Amino acid sequence: MRTSSNPAFRNLPTSPGGYARFGDAPAGLGGGFGAGPGQGPVAGASDRPLTVDDVVQKTALNAVVTIGAGVLTAISGMYWLGIPGFIVGLVVSLIIIFKQSSNPALVLTYSVAQGMALGAITGLLESSSSSYAGIGFQAIVGVVGVFIGMLVVYKTGAIRVTPRLTKMVIGAAIGVVILMLVNLVVGFFTTGGIGLRDGSPLAIIFSLACIAIGAFMLLLDFDQADQAVKAGVPAKFAWYLAFGFMTTLVWLYIEILRLLSYFRGD
C-alpha cells in the first residue's frame, strides 16, 4: 500500500488492497458500513459515498477561507494575530491528525488560523519595503500554478505514484525538515545559520528543492484522495482530505513566498 508524505493522509484508513474501508473509518466519521463490535455504529443510508466533487468543494472552501483570513489580517495591519494563528493552527492540526477527525469546525478553524499566520507574514514582508509590494498575490498565483500543474501530471499519468516514489518523497521531506531545524538552531549562535535562509545561491537552491518536494507531496495527496473516492468512504471524510490538501498548500505558499522574497529583496 502507498502512503502519502502528508502526515494527515498517511493515516488514511485502508483495506488490504490499499483502499480505505468503511469498517476502519477514522474518528469523527461515526463508524461505517461493515463495522464490527467496538467499531462504532453502522452508517445510515444518508451517509453516501465520497465523490470527487466533495473533495474539490471542501478543499476550495478551505482555500477561500484561508485566503480571506490572510487578506484581512494583512490589510488590517494586525500582524500580531500571526502568533496566535500559528499556535492555534499547530494545535488544531495535531488534534485532526491524531484523532483523524473530519469535524468541519476543526478543519475550518485550522484554515482560519493558518490564514492569519500567513497573512501576518505576508503583511509584514510587504510593509517592510516597496520591493515586496504584491508578493503575496504572486505567491498565491504560484501555488495555484503548482496545484494545477501537478493535477495535470497526475491525471495524465506522466508521473505514476509508486511505492518507490512515495518513499523517496517522504525521505526528502524528512531531510529538508531536519535541515531547517539545524539551520534554526545554528542561527541562534551564528548569523544566517548554515545559509539555507539568507538569500544566498544556496538558499535559493534549497527553496527550489522545498517547492519541488511540496509539489510531489501534492502528487501523492491526489493519489490518496483518489483511493478514498474509489473505496467509497463516507462523504464527510472530504473534510479530512481537504485538511490534508491545505497542509501541503500552506507549505508551498511559504516556500514560494520565501523564494520570491530572495529575488525581490533590496
UniProtKB/TrEMBL annotation:
InterPro entries named among the record's database cross-references? BaxI_1-like
Q: Which UniProt keywords apply?
A: Membrane, Transmembrane, Transmembrane helix
Pfam families recorded for this chain? BaxI_1
Which chain regions cross the lipid bilayer? Answer: 78-98, 105-125, 131-153, 165-190, 202-222, 234-254
Domain of life per record: Bacteria
Name of protein: Bax inhibitor-1/YccA family protein
